[in-house]
Structures are given as C-alpha cells and as structure tokens.
Specification:
With 365 residues, the chain is α/β, with parallel strands linked by helices. 30% of the residues lie in helices and 24% in strands. The longest helix has 16 residues. The radius of gyration is 23 Å and the shape is globular. The mean pLDDT is 91.
C-alpha cells in the first residue's frame, strides 16, 4: 500500500475520532477504518464510555469483508477487559491481516500490550503514520496518562499591550466576533471551563458552548475560596444540567453552602494554603471526576496563579489591535518573577490572523 494511501485512510480515522469530541472523557477519542481491496468496508468511532470502541464498530460494519483486510486506527487497540471487551481479540477474531496505528496508548493498562498481542497472533502491525496529529488530538488523555494531571489551556484575550480590560474595567468586547467564535470552539474541546469568582462577579459569564456543535456542555468551575458567587449569577441559573462546580475553602459557613446546594450546585472544598487553593489538591479532585482538560478563562489573578503553579500546558492568546496603556487591567497578575531569567518560556506553535485580531497558540516549555 502506497504511503499516500496509508495517510489518506489514517486521516479518515482521525476525522472519525474527532466526532467523539466532548463525549468520550475520560476515554480518548478513537476512530477506525477497515479497508479491503483498497476500499473502505467499515468505519466507527468511540462515542462515550461504556459503549463499543471504534474498532469493534468498524469491524461489525465490515462483517466478513474484514478477513484479510487492513485496520486503520489512531490509537493502539486496548488489550484489557473493562466495560467493553478487549479490541485486540475482536481484531484477531475478525481475521484482520494488517493494522496501522498512528501512535501507542501511553496508559499503563495498554502501553504496547495491544501491539504485542496482535503481533503474537500473526498480525502485521505498523505504528507512526500521522503520529503528531494523533497525539495532538488526544493531548489531554496523553497528559493525564503520563502525569496524572488535567491538561490546562489558558485562554487570554488582550490588547497589544497586554490588557484584558480598559481603565474602567470594561472588557466587552476586546476581540472581534471571529475570535469569540474560536473561543467557543475551545470550550467545545474541553471537559471544563474555569474562571475565578472575580470574573463571575464583574462579567456574569454563562461559560457555555454556543454556536458550536457540542453534545454535552462542559463543566463550569468557579474558583471561589470564600463562596462569594451570587445565587442569581448566570453560572448558577445555567445549572439545570448540574455541571456548575464551586471550588471553596474548607471553612465556608454552612448556611452559604446550603444556599448553593439547594440550587443543585456542586461544592468542592479544599484546604487553603495561605488563603490560596492548592492546584495539586484541585487537580486530584478534577481527575477523580473524569475532568482531564480544563480551559481557563479567568482574569489576571487566576492566570498568574496557574502559571506560578506550573499547571498550564498551552496558552491561546487572542490579541486585538488596541492599546490602552498602563492604566488598563493586565492579562496576567503578579507571578513573583524577579528577573527576565525567571520568566516562563513558551514555544510558539502557530500564529494566524482571525478576523481583525491575531491568535497565538503556544506551549509552556
């Protein structure tokens, strides 16, 4: 099979995998394509935990045509029994002759075991086609598998001189409509959207995905150590789906807690450290809930806190062609950096124009 043909089928597997965006967590997004005689005879993608995996769906659709065929999948097939049977056994039983996988599964339960089982069964296994794209698609899953922590994307919308609001505190709208639509796309990719209580009090955001396809709304996480979130705020009103989480200190008065609990808001209490929420404790709580990818849209204080904690993996910066001067509100608060040498270094992945603004995507080195 020619390299360009292999890549074409693998791209199709990645497209199929992307259809599970927002519904598969904490599982990875996986797509599969079965090919026989140079033609697609079966396709599938994983939709949500507990339901059949992509490989099983594609093999079922292909039926007898699978025998002697080739399977393309963006992630190593699982080899363990969980809520669903192991995909390796389904592949072997179907009579697949060759498997092309974009990358290995870094989770300790898999991590090469799936490939070993297939090879022992006499199946040819090829790994590495479009590996970079496949790892980017499931970057949150890979980060959790390797570090046990949520993947954090920090979104900033600022002027050219790094201000997220004017001198009077007004911030609507710094960036244009196209940039705001891109932010909703970022929300659709995340398991949760997180802000500080200051943002809730000043801007009253809804923190929902709008204008972009998303089957399930992401969690709305409010960092609120002393529980100042107004009961009439949008994040509380939008809690019909029970997805609003308030992260508080462990000393909040019981009456305040009861007010929120009556509205169906979930409270996560963590012991404060010098009045600040420890990221490690919050990260553990989020992982237990299956929240592996957090989009942070808070103000400068929240941004500085997460950067100080070295919790941020990626920065999405939307820069508007405006200048407000030093009296504007800075995008990032005090990080305790004493010299340029102590500053965080970023690796720029992409710079592109979006409407009248500029979008910069960068990873923390």
């Amino acid at each position: 099979m020619k390299p360009e043909v292999i890549e074409r089928f693998m791209r199709r597997a990645l497209v199929l995998a992307g259809r599970g965006e927002g519904t598969t967590h904490p599982n990875p997004m996986v797509g599969a394509v079965v090919v026989a005689g140079g033609k697609t005879v079966g396709e599938g993608w994983h939709q949500k935990p507990g339901e059949p995996h992509a490989e099983a769906i594609a093999l079922d659709e292909a039926g007898r045509k699978s025998r002697g065929g080739t399977l393309f999948v963006n992630l190593e097939p699982c080899d363990q029994t969980g809520r669903t049977p192991p995909c390796t056994q389904a592949i072997i039983k179907a009579g697949i002759a060759r498997v092309f996988a974009a990358c290995a599964d870094p989770h300790s339960l898999v991590d090469g075991k799936g490939f070993d089982t297939l090879r022992k069964a006499g199946i040819e296994v090829n790994v590495g086609t479009l590996q970079r794209e496949a790892e980017e698609l499931n970057r949150a899953f890979f980060n959790f598998s390797r570090k046990g922590r949520p993947y954090v994307t920090l979104k900033l919308a600022a002027t050219l001189d790094g201000r997220i609001a004017g001198p009077s505190g007004d911030s609507k709208w710094i960036t244009g409509e196209e940039a705001r639509r891109a932010v909703h796309r970022l929300r659709a990719q995340a398991d949760a959207v997180m802000v500080g209580v200051g943002t809730v009090v000043s801007d009253d955001p809804m923190l929902t995905v709008r204008g972009v396809r998303r089957k399930i709304q992401p969690y709305r996480i409010i960092l609120d150590p002393s529980l100042r979130t107004p009961p009439g705020s949008s994040v509380v009103k939008e809690n019909r789906d029970g997805s609003t989480l308030l992260v508080t200190g462990d000393g909040v008065p019981a009456e305040r807690r009861r007010v929120m609990e009556k509205r169906g808001v979930r409270l996560i209490a963590v012991p404060l450290s010098k009045g600040v929420i420890p990221w490690s404790d919050l990260a553990d709580a989020l992982v237990k809930m299956g929240i592996l990818h957090v989009l942070v849209e808070g103000g400068g204080k929240t941004a500085a806190w997460l950067l100080r904690e070295r919790a941020v993996n990626r920065v999405e910066l939307f820069m508007a062609p405006r200048i407000t001067g030093s009296s504007g509100v800075p995008a990032v608060g005090d990080m305790g950096v004493a010299s340029l040498q102590e500053s965080l270094r970023l690796s720029i992945l992409n710079v592109r124009r979006i409407g009248g603004d500029v979008r910069i995507t960068a990873d923390i080195k």
